[in-house]
Amino acid sequence: MVRDSRQRFLEAWKASSAHSNSDERVLDVQFSDDAIGVSLRDGRIITVPLVWYPRLLDATVSQRKNWKIAGGGYGIHWPDIDEDLSTDGLLRGAPAPRASVPTKLRPRFCLWPSIPCPNCHN
Predict the structure, then answer these.
(1) Which CATH superfamily groups domain 23-95?
(2) Which has more confidence, 7 or 30?
(3) What are the extents of the domains in the chain?
(4) Contact between residue 81 and residue 100 where contact means Cβ atoms under 8 Å apart
(5) Is 83 within 8 Å of 61 (Cβ atoms)?
(6) Tens digits of per-residue pLDDT, 14-36?
(7) What value, to the nearest 5°, has the Cα angle with vertex 87 and ends 26 and 28?
(8) Long-range contacts (CB closer than 8 Å, 24 or more residues apart) made by 60-67
(9) Tens of pLDDT along 77-122?
């Protein structure tokens, strides 16, 4: 009996998810001191920490405000800092894929001066 109820619930949930009215396209982008909020057309708002995206963390207010909808509405592009985010990545809670360190946290000297250092831009 419990198994049948659970199975019916799962089937109903899958069916409703498949025909959901979600629209994951970007409507608006807002920033606080430490987070980015992306409003979707279906009414949801995704809020994630800015530290996940070092380029946006280091950007000026005017650079952050200069964003454009990209990827058919499913992406955001900041031309001034060459940053791109997707609603899919934001919904999955995916931080920036590169292991970049924000400028504010970079060492003032290179720990390995004999090899190219991505933090020092050598």
Answers:
(1) Uncharacterised protein PF10387, DUF2442 (3.30.2020.40)
(2) 30
(3) 23-95
(4) no
(5) no
(6) 554 544 679 999 999 999 999 99
(7) 25
(8) 61/31, 64/31, 67/29
(9) 999 999 999 999 999 998 987 655 455 554 444 444 555 555 554 4
How many CB atoms lie under 10 A from the CB of residue 117?
A: 15
Q: What burial class does residue 38 get, using C-beta atoms within 10 Å of its C-beta: 0-12 exposed, 13-18 middle, 19+ buried?
A: buried
Query: How far is 105 from 45, CA to CA, in rounded Å?
Result: 29
pTM, two decimals, is 0.65
**CA dist., res. 14 & res. 58, Å (int):** 41
User: Which residues, in sequence order, are CB contacts of 39 under 8 Å at separation 6+?
Assistant: 26, 27, 28, 29, 30, 45
Residues β-bridged to residue 85: 76
